[in-house]
Amino acid sequence: MATEIVWSQRAQTNLQNIFDYISKDSVIYARRFVTSLVLYTEDELQDYLDIGRRVPEFINTPLGDLREVIFKGYRIIYYPECENNQVTIITVLSGRMNLEKAMK
User: Is 1 a residue whose pLDDT tops 60?
Assistant: First the structure.
């Protein structure tokens, strides 16, 4: 059974913000980057829901099940639901950003 990958509203907004920022220089590169990020993420998570590492900031907290994969300096944070064979992408943010601050 194929894994269902769901992009949360927050993650979709993050992708739009990334696109908008890059498109100030080039719409073509912005489209290429965001498309590559989405395809990479979906390809990585399609077969192995727990392929990413646990999010270090949330280990030993109620959010300890969150995982992340990295794409060109961006953290793609997701929640794997193995019993439902589903992944929910929670957020996408630059690795330079403070995660706890960004999640509020």
Answer: no
